[in-house]
Amino acid sequence: MAFNKSVRLLMATVSTFALGTAAYAQDATNISGTDAADVSATTDQPVLIAENSIALDAITITANKLETSVIDAPASISVVDEEELERRQPSDLSDILRGMPGVEIYGGPRSTVQEPIIRGLTGDRVVVRVDGARANMSVGHKGRFFFDPEVLKSVEVYRGAASTMQGTGALGGVIALTTKDANDLLDPGQKIGARVKVGYASVDHGLTTNGMAYGRPTDNTDILVSVTRESTGNFESGDGVKQQYTDDDYINGMFKGGIDINDASRLTLSVQRYSDDHQLPAAPDSGAAVNSTSNYLVDRESEESSLVLRYSYHDLGNDWIDANVNAYGMRTDLDEKRVSDGRHDERTLDTIGIDGNNTSRFDLAGRELAVTVGGELYQDSQEGRRNGVAVANLFPDAEMTIYGVYVDNAFAVTDALDLTVGVRFDSYDLSAEGQRSREDSAISPRFSASYRVTSWMQPYVSYAEAFRAPAMTEMYASGYHFPGNNFVANPDLEAEKAKTWEFGTNFKSDNLLTAGDAFRAKVAYFHNEIEDYIEQQGATFGSSETKSVNVPEAEIKGFEAELSYDTGVVFAGLAASRLRGENTRTGENLANIPADKVAVSGGYRFEDYGVELGGRANMVDRLTRIASGSEVPGYATFDLFARWDASETVPGLTVNAGIDNLFDHNYQVADQGLYEPGRNFKISASMKF
């Protein structure tokens, strides 16, 4: 098929394109008599020559708890910033992460059912944090993300084993959501402000309204209050068919305040409350038709409340203390009533935790050694009730306590060579009423080395181990599953352990083709070996029992690339990934390994008019390497977007518009069974006062 060949050809040429383009930078003519590429390579910022030069490179803290430029980090990291969030006008997680290499969203287009997959790993193998708080809800068919896109400032995705710095469980990676605060919205010198935003989507007649009020009551305090309401109907897929029970109705409230205690210390408090109400099938991620036995219709309410208290100390004159401490609590409630007879199912997960770290910097013969010491302690407590009575198959009553400590050392050996060596110790204690408790511990080391061969090329190698305790439901679920099939508890489940090698190269060049432009690229190959991989077996009709078991050895490997180019007027990007995963003992394919894909985007800014126009294409090959079921056809979708900063016409007004799935293609992602939305006209307008 021509499309499939095109995808493979594009993926094969990504690395060559990155290398060739960056190499061209070495021979590019000097601008204004200055070798700007060399200058930029020794600083943290691109050289600013033209008025339309790009903004600073995105900063990451998931790599090593230090503020590091993404392009300089020896790891595969992507950041979706506020500008890109505005372009996408997202209503759910898939809108935000679509096209990102190595990342897929499982569960279909119902927003509260979605689960992220990073490098073929999902569920508890992906650590999710919201303003630093762990969001640990993970239960079969029910989804994991309950958030409001309107309050997001950025979404950072770390791909690869990250337990050492980000906590137990991060075998696949980390998704870190950061919300806005008043300082992001207030203009210099402004004391108080407000923003009102309204958005509409044609595919489901969705209406989103958001109101924010923010200000600085005193010189050292800031406050933001936000309320969002979204209401949608059932959407139409590309064939014009209404997809039943895809409507939604949620409201989210957020309070966020900060106090600058002094020039070095800051205390922040973030409180959020999310509430969602709609009708869904009992297994809303399966795509199966509603029936009276295994996929009955329920009235579902999803609620999530969180509180995060954060203290930070950062003094440029103090090399010994650079500290952050988070204390948090999160409660997630899933409440379902079966429409046919009112049977009432409740699932509640409470997470409380604290984590902190401090970095001390030492001068060793003119070279900086940054030593970060940190730790984490959290507890998950879950309860499941059916008509008020505990039932082990639904969501077994259980409790897990995990603590971990780590040390990480980043050393600039020379101007070109950087080394990082770290190690983490984790311990868990898992128990459930009437079941045998389990406890275990592990040591997870990591190291990385990067070397700037030239001003524009920085190859790196990294190795990391990660550790994940079995989930409470994986270990203790027992009893009725569906007619003819029962859950069987397995308290002998072993924790998963991953060992990941990654070989990559970062490319960074400024003033490549014209004054003030910037080219960035990250390409990487990884190989992840997982011992005691936990897989659910027997969850199909014809099987008498469903049980979580350990697969002795599993292997996931792949190639990823992400490139961007920006002149301030013209911008473009390309991303690609190719992953393979198998049970190395049997040769069978692993579940959740996404198809090969390539994403391309670009646009043009009419700066004199405050207008930006662009588009994106997401091309996915057919999925043939699956654990069970049928092959899934490939697809290609095309989107358009436009943005108008109308401040010169109407002060404070910004308008975003777009068309998703321009050609109304009828498709589904992976083997989810539920088709994605068809052509979708989106528009939103925000007014700042």
Automatic annotation (TrEMBL):
User: Where's the TonB-dependent receptor-like beta-barrel domain?
Assistant: 263-662
**Motif TonB C-terminal box boundaries:** 672-689
One GO term (biological process)? siderophore transmembrane transport
Q: Which InterPro entries match?
A: Beta-barrel_TonB, Beta-barrel_TonB_sf, Plug_dom, Plug_dom_sf, TonB-dep_rcpt-like, TonB_haem/Hb_rcpt, TonB_Hb/transfer/lactofer_rcpt, TonB_rcpt_CS
- Residues forming the TonB-dependent receptor plug domain are 70-174
Q: Where is the signal peptide?
A: 1-25
For this UniProt record, give its keywords in alphabetical order, as a comma-separated list. Cell outer membrane, Membrane, Signal, TonB box, Transmembrane, Transmembrane beta strand, Transport
Show the Gene3D superfamilies listed in the entry: TonB-dependent receptor, beta-barrel domain, TonB-dependent receptor, plug domain
- Topology in membrane: Multi-pass membrane protein
- Subcellular location(s) per record: Cell outer membrane
Gene Ontology, cellular component aspect = cell outer membrane
Task: Provide a Gene Ontology MF annotation, just one.
Answer: siderophore uptake transmembrane transporter activity
Instruction: Note the PANTHER family from the entry.
Output: HEME_HEMOPEXIN UTILIZATION PROTEIN C (PTHR30069:SF41), TONB-DEPENDENT OUTER MEMBRANE RECEPTOR (PTHR30069)
Q: Which family does it belong to?
A: Belongs to the TonB-dependent receptor family.
What protein name is recorded for this chain?
A: Hemoglobin
Please report the organism this UniProt entry assigns to the protein: Thalassospira profundimaris
